Amino acid sequence: MMGVIVTGITERASSMERPVSVTIEVIDRTVSGKVVAAEDNLPVPGVSVVLKGSKSGTNTDADGLFKLEVPDNNGVLVFSAVGFVSQEVQVGSKSTFEVRLAGDLKTLTEVVVVGYGTQKKSQTTGAISSVGSKEINEMPITNLGQALQGRAAGVDVTQSGSKPGSVPKILIRGRRSFNAGNDPLYVVDGIPLSAGYEDMNPNDIQSMEVLKDATATAIYGARGANGVIIVTTKKGAVKGKTTVSYDAYVGVSKALDKVELFNGQEFAEFVRESYRATGGYKDAAGNPVPTGKADAAADAKVAVLGGDPNVAKGLANGTNTDWQDLILKNGIMTNHSVGVQGGNERTQFYISGGFFKDKGIVEGLDFTRTSLRANIDHNVNSWLKVGLSSYSMYSIKNGENLNTYGFTINQNPLATPYDDNGNIRFSPTNDALLTNPLAEIVPGAQIDQMKRYRIFNSLFAEFKIMEGLKYRVNFGPDMTITRWGRFIGAQTNARKGGDAQANMANTFGFNWTLENIVNYNKTFAAKHNLNVTLLHSIQRDNFEGFLANVQGVPAETQSFYNLGAATSILAVGSNLSQWTINSYMARINYDFNDKYLLTMTLRRDGSSRFGENSKYGNFPGIAVGWNLGNEDFMKNVTWLDLLKVRAGWGKVGNQGVSPYQTQGLLGRTAYAWGSTPAYGYRPNSIGNPDLRWESSATSNIGVDFSFWRGQVQGSLEFYQTNTTDLLLSDQLPGSTGFNAVTRNVGETRNRGIELGVTTINMNSGSGFKWTTDFTFTKNTEAILSLYNGKVDDVGNGWFIGRALSTVYDYKKVGIWQTSEADVAKSYASEVGQIKIQDTNNDKKINADDRVIIGSDVPDFSAGITNRFTYKGFDLSFFFFARVGNLIRSQFHNSNNALAGRYQQIKVDYWTENNPTNEFPRPKSNQEFPVYGSTLTYFDGTFVKLRNINFGYTFTPTLAKKLNMESFRLYSSIQQPAIWSKYRTKYNGVDPEATGLTAGGTGVTPATMVITVGLNVKF
Questions:
Q1: Which among 780, 778, 782, 779 has a CA at the least distance from the CA of 723?
Q2: Residue in 752, 718, 720, 877 with CA at minimum distance from that of residue 156
């Protein structure tokens, strides 16, 4: 046997990568061999050995052995395994081979954006989560918030509804503040956004990094008080030909299901029962008609039934109008994005255009966005580099404030929507408050339109002063123009035949950021790595607004475009708001031999929003890290790739007060000057020149790990954030002439655990691969003190030791049953009504019996994504869950009156024949049940199958025949299933909501979207 050693080995990416030795014997053109790790000579099972260009292949066994037939000397064997760089070996006429494969531990070399620079993941010391283009492109999304949900531990993303263009609410590690805001900072290509993230085209995003702890966010100071989301858009390529990509999908959206309401006969019986409860449902002889029985004479006396000719006709004919079917329809969602990417060593460019349209499931609701991006980087010479990232967007959103569907829920199912001639009945019943919801969607009857224009730029020039020393200047102008128009015609429920109304509001925002950055990077004695970053930044914001509200539009076709022609001007207003932040920052990153890590940060921010005595605040941060896996005593732990322990503490501020709030302001007042009305001005608020920053101090301990050559990798975090000097309105005695003054009082705390894990469950030589991403987040909020120390503020629902949003109310323990008539009477109630817990057992129900019901903070949330690939096929599905939070369902409050006047959610209400403990007996003289708020609290736990995606990528050979570089077809289903007791048992629309309120009157049903799409690259 001949022995030949093949050299030219791929260079190892890090000191921890393990070369592999492969020995091959050629015996009658059957090759055999053994795969071992060169460093420890341990066999490596599961290595794929494939004859290139054929389907012939095998895997190494538990001892690293394999056998494979080859047809001739020209064969090429391809060796591949998780955690190693694939290597090709020419068989030739040799009888024995030895091949070394270099490890490919991307966990150690992956670069993440940390703000004002990048770091290898193995060298970071802060709590950072990353979401890459794979996750972003995995499902059709409208905005980047949807891409973050369930994909980044510690990031709580909740949908605000199903209306087109709705924007999710994003919280990083919970809420810290009552009044200063809890929204994170969004930084795009190095420039902080001033007007929200919803205008971004997700197709342009390359990656997102979420900075969560204070040591990571301290570099952004006050602006990063609630966490930072860094968005990096796609850039040009340094080498290779220019590529053109086209990504598109089209989909159909439909209501996942409808709200279950009473049908015609059930509604009639519901109304009868409400009148029985008040003694109003009697036959012709004046005798009460028992539950379950209908009487024509009794029906005729009920205004909602026989007392209304239209309803009486429907009752006689067995009419059952499903008003939801008349309003709901299938929507259309489509997206097109074209990108051109290329460049050379001197110039790189990426240019893209996008068009997105989402036409909702209710007429009049839609969202359209058109965007254009150009990213250009150019090396002028060896010491100067310049670049531009420019984004322009134009969007139209219709129907954000329309309530067609919510209004539909209350319609009488016994009424008919059209007259005998097929025309819309404006008033299907005699009830003056119930007009026909179909009249709301007549073209031009209701218009609610927002047009938005956005131009966002990031320009930079980078100077290389000397080796390791660079100076960079960033300039980021951000301009947003918004026009909102509202028109309400005469033939709508809001006007009921009265004069048409029109409103218009215009806003103009211009924000600019200028940053000067000096960076020094140096390695000393081959083991000491030092990076120093110095920054001066100034950001200025200018916001102008104008609005006008009129009534009596002479011609409805004018809509809101000719306000001056109206007969009455109801309101006119305008405003100007300006603020500035001036900042200085210094950061030092040091590591010794990639083992011991240190980060120190100091930021000093000055805000024009605060008074003369406290404009500036200092915000430090320090973090250390230890790469245990790089220690000599860990070298023999062959299954360990990375084990890093991190600990840090940092402090950041929050400037969340309105401009001029620290000053004493004037308000207009009306008075009589003799017999003439006049206006004057009076002090409207008390200024506080000593008002200062809220401060959040975070302690964080984290562990980053990677095992078995990257087959299991992730991070585990433990943190606590204490926020002090809260910006709260402290109450004042009325005798002072003012109600409150803003002061720095109180403290809150957040504690939590976060886990993010990625596993490679299977990676066979046949081409089948299965990976899983899992995230887990548990965060608890607590108020530690308020204005008067550790004293509850019951009026605001703020309780020491509890979450910032806590429900404090009476507790429903059931429904008073027939056997409890006397006891119910002693509590001033009656059989069939809500039974309230007598908390203090004083035999009466009053405010002292209220208890804490719960909060909207979940016990935990989690997301799991499974991905399967086999040759050209790919399949992924994503589940997301929130567990243990409370919902205060405004949808039930609006659509569960139980008075018998309006149609409502179908509930299990009490009758003598159905003595349930769920919902009380309807009563016609009671608009809402006594203690009816107790019927709006539900367990908000849910599990959603957020997305299923199935695709096929054509082989390079076939793609080339089509003159393409790559070609993929796919289909996806978004939100095909929701598991939640709130929906299945209590007829809720969608348990996912912002804050405690789940679906008010403006709700639309949860939707499912089925799409087909393609990804093409030329």
A1: 782
A2: 752
